[in-house]
Amino acid sequence: MEAADPFxxxxxxxxxxxxxxxxxxxxxxxxATDSVYGGQIEALMDADLDGDVELxxxxxxxxxxx
Amino acid sequence: xxxxxxxxxxxAAEIASGSADAxxxxxxxxxxxxxxxxxxxxxxxxFAEQSREMLQDAPDGPxxxxxxxxxxxxxxxxxxxxxxxxxxxxxxxxxxxxxPYRALRDAGAVIVGVANMHxxxxxxxxxxxxxxxxxxxxxxxxxxxxxxxxxxxxxGGRLVAGAVGADGIGSIRYPAAYxxxxxxxxxxxxxxxxxxxxxxxxxxxxxxxxPDAADCRLLGSALFGEQLQAGDxxxxxxxxxxxxxxxxxxxxxxxxxxxAVDALRSQTGGExxxxxxxxxxxxxxxxxxxxxxxxxxxxxxARVAALGDDVSPIARALLKYRxxxxxxxxxxxxxxxxxxxxxxxxAFADVDVIAWPAVPAPAPPLDNPTVELPSGRHAAxxxxxxxxxxxxxxxxxxxxxxxGLSSEGLPIGLQLQAAWGRDELxxxxxxxxxxxTGREHVEALPAIAAGV
Lengths: 66, 452
Known about the structure:
Chain A is mainly α. Chain A has a domain at 1-37. Chain A is 53% helix and 0% strand. In chain B, α2 runs antiparallel to α3, α4 packs across α7 (213-224) and α9 crosses α15. In chain B, 41% of the residues lie in helices and 15% in strands. Chain B is α/β, with parallel strands linked by helices.
C-alpha cells in the first residue's frame, strides 16, 4: 500500500482528531480546495499587513478615523 | 405582449390603475411557471392558495398584486426554508415571518414561489442543490450562477419580473451576470434580513434581482423599507484597477466591460480614474475565510459528522475543511477586512464607483463548472469569488448589470461598487448605462422568454 503524502496525512489526522472518519472523498475534495486556496492562505499568513483590526466594526458605514 | 413580460414597475402600475386584474396576473404567472419551470428548475415550490391569500390581504403598497419569488433562504409563514440542502446545520428550520417576507407583504407583493439555490449557499454556480440544479435560461446546459440560482434563472427566463436573492460572497451578482439580469447587493445592514439561517452574519444581505435597475429600485425600496430616490450622476468618476480582478478575464468579458465603462463615462460626462487599491491581492481569500467561518460558533464537528448521504459529499467535505483552517489565517483575514475598508474609503474619496467584471467569464457548463481565463483554467467558484468578495468583506454596495452577450450567446455582466450607503448611486449609474446603450442589453431575452 502506498504511503499517504504529507497533505493526506494532515487531513486524515486532523479530521480524525476532530472525531470524523475521513474517507477518500474528503481527502480528494480537501486536496482540490487546498490547491485553489492554499497558496493564497500561505501568502496571507506571510503578508506584511498595515494597520490594526477595527475594534468598533460597523459594516454599514465607512471606517471611523483611527 | 403579456403583462408578465413587462417590467415589475409596469405590472404594478397596470394593477394599480385597474387596467390589469391582479388575480389574472397571478394565475397567468402560475401558468407560466408551470410551463417554463420544467426546463429551468428555478422555482422549487409554488403555493397557489397562500399566494391568493397574500393577494386578497395585500395592502395598497407600491408592489400591490405583483408576483415575485423568494430564495429558499428565509422562512415563510407557511413554509420553512431549506437553504438548498437536505439537512439543516443548526436547529430545524420552522415556518415564520422573515424580514424579507414582511417587506414584500407590506409592499403588497404576492409571493408566488420559492426559488432554488446552491446547497447551503456555498457555491457561485448553482449546480448543486437538494432540488437538483437550476438551469441557465440562455442555455439550459449551463450554470445559472449561485448561490441565488433560482432567482437568477426565474427572472432571466421571465417567470417573474422580480426576485429576492441573498448575497454572501457575490451570490446575487454572479447569477445576475450569468442570467442577463440586474442584481443589487445592498450596503450591509440596509435590507431586511431577519430570519436568515446565519443569524449573526457579517457578510450576507438580501437584495433585489430584476430585469433592470428601475425594477431593482422598486423591489429594493421594499426590502430597504425606504424609497431609494433617483439622483443625478453627471460627472460620474469611475474607478478602474489594473489588477487580475479586472484583467484576468475572458477577452470577450473584458472587452464588453471596457466598452460599457466608456459608454457610462460618455453618458454621464464623467471620467475614468485608474486606482491602486492597497491590499486588494489579499481581499479574495479574506472574504472566503470570513464568509465560510462566521457560522462556526454554532457548528460542531459532531453535527457535521452526523450529516447523511443526502447532503452532497462536496458540501460535507468542505464543512470539515473549515475546521482545519489555520486560526492565524482567519485572524489575519479580519485584519485584511479593516485594511480593505480603509483602502476603499480612501478610493471613494477620489471616485464615485469602482468598475470591474461581475464574473470573469460567462456561465460554464453544469457538468464542468470551470472557466478558462488568461491565467489558465480555474474553478468558477474561485474565479467568481475573486470578483465578488470585496463588497461582502467591506460592507459596500455593489450591482451587476448586463452589458452584452458572448460569442456563444451568453450574458456578460459589469459590476459597479460604491461607498457605504450609496446604493442609490449604483442604481442611478446602472440606469445611465441602460440609457447609453438604448436598453439593448436589459431587453435582450433568451429564447425561452422570447417565445422563440
